Amino acid sequence: MIRPRLSSSKPLVLMGMVTSASLFFLGPRTFRESSGPTPIVISTAQKFLRTLYPDVTGKNYIMSVATFGTLDTDWILMPTFEVAIGPAEKGHMDWIGGRDGKAAQMVEQKPILTASFDFDKEGLLANAYVRSDTVTFSSENEHLRTIVDANPGWSDQQVTTALEAEGARFGPTQRNALLKAVPVKLLEPFIGALQIDSAEFRLRHPQPPHAIAELYWEVLGHSQIASGRNGQWDLIIEPFRGTLIALTRSE
């Protein structure tokens, strides 16, 4: 079963904000090779998010980047890093209230979108996971999975009906429409020309005492990445608007 989640742990020791792109390069490089102060993999992640999720662009949002790694050993590649996009940097707190004798409260500005990225030692994208209530409909997916899990006796048809009732455009019967919605062209600058091999809707994962709802499309494909290498790709796509929520490479 694949159910993408972003880590909630917070041992973050490198924090920064990226508000503009630097050089975008698709060939093999280490994360340190860049024409400016921004590691090239962060610029690539920024470009990836702007390309695949245009709804978060043009709003003067801040992109915060966080990662961690050992201090005593040189990093030969960028560790997994997390990204948060929103009206303020991650962890930003605003004072709210403080009038009519009421004490002011600190309220955190929540990110609009969070993501995590992995790049290999050549600086090529290996994994990406994205979560957003407004862009990838994460709350709707969680809500629907809760409903399905609460009804273990439902048939597959009843689960499909529930999906449609909740407004999912790309349920199990919409395979052809889903294939047209896969962002092949948008992904090409990052993973090469993707050739789709299969697409399967994951309803539930069987396990005792009863199956657990999955409710997403898994699209498998392949492409030729840098230096003639072949990459196998596993795409996870949510059913409400057909938005990519996870991308994983194997070779």
- Fraction of residues in helices? 10-25%
Question: Class by helix and strand content?
Answer: alpha+beta
Measured between the Cα atoms of the first and last residue, the distance is: 20 Å
Question: Per DSSP, what share of the residues sits in E-state strands of 2 or more residues?
Answer: 25-35%
Large-scale geometry = globular
Description of the molecule:
With 251 residues, this protein is α+β, with helices and mostly antiparallel strands. The protein folds into two domains: 129 residues, no CATH class; 116 residues, no CATH class. The protein is built from five helices and eleven strands. The strands form two sheets. It has a nine-stranded antiparallel sheet, covered by helices on one side. Strands 4-5 form a two-stranded antiparallel sheet. It starts with 13 loop residues before the first strand and ends with a strand. The N terminus is likely disordered.
Summarize the structure.
The chain has 251 residues and is α+β, with helices and mostly antiparallel strands. It has helices at 40-52, 138-149, 156-165, 175-181, 184-191, and strands at residues 14-18, 62-67, 81-86, 93-97, 104-108, 113-119, 125-131, 195-205, 212-224, 230-237, 244-250.
